[in-house]
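User: I'm putting together notes for a lab meeting next week and I want to include a structural view of one of the chains we've been expressing. I don't have a solved structure, so I'd like a prediction I can at least talk through. The sequence is below, exactly as it appears in our construct file.
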Amino acid sequence: MLSAAALALTLLAAQNDSTPSCATTLALLERTMHLDYAGYTLELRGDRLTRFAAMKAALQERASRTHGDDCYFVLRDFVEWFDDPHLFVYQTMRVDTAELRRRAAQVERRSVTEDGVREYYRKRGARLDAIEGIWYDRGMRVAVVPDSSSGAGHYVAVLLTSDTTGWTPGTVRARFTRRPNGGYDAQVLERNYARAYRRAEIYRHVVLRLSPGLWGKEFPVPSADTGTLDPVDPHRPVVYRKNGTIVFAIPSHNGYKPALDSLVAKYREEISSADRLIIDLRGNEGGGSFMTNDLEPFVSLEQELPNPFPTDRPLMLSSPDQIAYARRAFGSDTSKFVRGLIARLEASPGELVPLNDPADTVKAPDPRDWVVSSGPRRVGVLVDHGTVSAAEVFVLYALRSPRATVFGEPTAGALDYQTASIVSISPHERRWFLGYGTITRGPGLPAGGMRGKGIPPQVRIDLRAVADPVAYVDRALSTRP
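Assistant: Thanks for the context. Below is the predicted structure for the 481-residue chain, given as structure tokens.
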């Protein structure tokens, strides 16, 4: 926690410099976390506080000798220490005209052709790194190949098909560096040449999560994974069959509700009479939990099992940013709920207050409590470490149904602090912002929390060892009574 004197010096430094130093930016980031992020208040105690102080001191020293865009990595390491998927440093993608022209003139080019890279991929076969291949996202197609100038573990994404007139084939759109513990560090150039730093992970062999955003793999693709992604927009849900069983593959909960609703309507009659249904949430990037409302009746039953991670006492930490978020996210002050919530927040600055009125003991009816489908008989939900946020809400829903079984690996564990908001850390810092979870699952955290552990599946699968996890789930469901 910042002392009053340290805070005063921090703010003075920011006022005297339109671009704050890295040390100043780090201090401002921590101050904003202290004001807005409930995990800072609830969890920095005892041994964890001691470890936090040591981490903070090391990063403060590092910040004192860090300049320019490299400060992002100091800020990123600071927030990643909390191990919360809803806590992140948001990078602005604004680039002025002069900077855009400068960056456009400096873009690298590589002599790469589609025929040439396809032949290379075929020859290398099983020796290819998982990230090598042709990837796509809504019009953009790139070939990821080794960067021979940087050594082993370094790759470049060379444009094959452009999604904008500002980019031409042969230009380098991204760089990837393989991390020793798995995954990749990425530098991605956006359409306007803004440079974004990402943690990149591959899920399902064909989904490259860039957090935010994802790419789909076009080639080479294992036979078991062929046809499991939309061929144009890898974010979109798809339906396919595995040994006759209908499979919903849902890579994102972010803005694709109409597409999913349309698929549910198209297959409704068939699903209702099916023996088995599989829902693949591996690598799902999250979004809005309401997206899967139309699918949930095919998972639920009137009989419900206990929720392993109940959210019966949601809270909000009171701060000006939180009050602004409540007005923006929950509706205008004409709503009784919003008026009551804002009154509770304004009356208790710096404290955790209940999201719902404590005097209101009547639970509002939820349509999902009574809309129950007659089929299918058995449902399998497939998850992994990339299943995050809104997708985890669906996983908890499935765990309460006697006819559903969750398979795979523990999820990301993002529901202790839910529903992200992005706020400025200073009017003088326009490069980076803080993203954090606005709603706290309960007052006792970290006890009983899921961060760092995730939601455990009922049937664990080593997804690295099983060539076709969907077929595995289908076989397991077929043997159940």
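A couple of points you could mention at the meeting. The chain has four domains: 4-82, 97-222, 235-310+365-415+450-478, 316-354. The longest helix spans residues 46-64.

User: Perfect, that's what I needed.
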